[in-house]
Amino acid sequence: MMNVVSTPEPARPAAGEPLVRVQGLSRRFGSRSFWRPGKTRGFYAVRDVNLTIAKGEALGIVGESGCGKSTLGRMILRMLRPTDGQIEFAGQDISTLSDGALRPLRRRMQMIFQDPFASLDPKRRIGDQIADALKVHGIMDEAQSRQRTAELLSQVGLLPEHAGRRPHAFSGGQRQRIAIARALAPSPDLIVADEPIAALDVSIQAQVVNLLSDLRARMGLSLLFISHDLHVVRHLCDRVAVMYLGRIVEQGTVEQVFGSPRHPYTRVLLAASPSLRSGARIESLKGEIPSPAHPPSGCGFRTRCPMALPACAEREPALVTDGTDHAVACRRAGEMPA
User: Fold this and answer.
1) Is 56-82+101-236 assigned to CATH 3.40.50.300?
2) What is the DSSP code string of 239-294?
3) Which of 133, 180, 232, 327 shows a CA-CA span of 20 to 30 A to 310?
4) Domain-wise residue ranges, the chain
5) CA separation for the pair 14, 17 (Å, rounded)
6) What's the average model confidence in pLDDT over 173-177?
7) Lowest mean pLDDT: which of 72-76, 101-105, 137-141?
8) Is 87 helix (H, G, I), strand (E, B) or coil?
9) What is the C-alpha to C-alpha distance for residues 53 and 263, in angstroms, rounded to an integer?
């Protein structure tokens, strides 16, 4: 029987305190110049992001590919170290903690990846892979971990006897259920789900979304849900943040952002989603998203915005609230019809 190692349990957040608080978070990636040895060039994948996630809350992050959604999620879990800014988890600043100091917190922060097959070891039984999450943190011994693995498989809609099979024996939806079971194993407070249904058939996506919704309600999980699918975000999340070129351009409750979008980019995203299309007319996006390495001056969205003004090229608008939880980074937010 393995020895169970006890690790100090960090304090839980007080009632009403956010589980996660992010302030001024940025991440810059750099590369060496081929033509000028010794020089580096770089770009910001995430710039000056502020957000909170309450205990038991689901926050959706939406935006086009390359806008920084996944980088933000990985920074919050400290899989990536931020270049600037602060990340607080359960009231503790984890922005610059070493791997050793982060270890007691790892069990409370888990991730579900986009491709379930790539996130599982094809040579190992799935029961052993789920049990690893218990053993690595010294939570349970061998016998206890087997029992817990059987419970987790049942929780996600699989059978306990599936523990002896390898990943290739399962469908894509079943593999994602296995990945969810593994994330749930150490009883986390926060799960970051990075496009968890993007690699699944449409017929299976709803099953996985409903499973996440049910588990979140029963277990009181906080969820950071990264997705392109605005319809799923509206169904699953309490609040939503819209990202463009590394910045949050609009955030608020799902009812505020989806029911009364105030940023032109948000309105275009909604117009492109048939199930969420509003009655307001707005021109479609023009051109491609700019390169983060060469962002436009002023407002990053102005080169594609159908409502851009000359002043938009001069200074980047700040993310400003309207007196509620609804915040928008746009000079013309007040002109948007409800």
Assistant:
1) yes
2) EEEEEETTEEEEEEEHHHHHHS--SHHHHHHHHT-GGG--S---PPP-SPPPPTTS
3) 327
4) 56-82+101-236, 247-335
5) 5
6) 95
7) 137-141
8) strand
9) 22
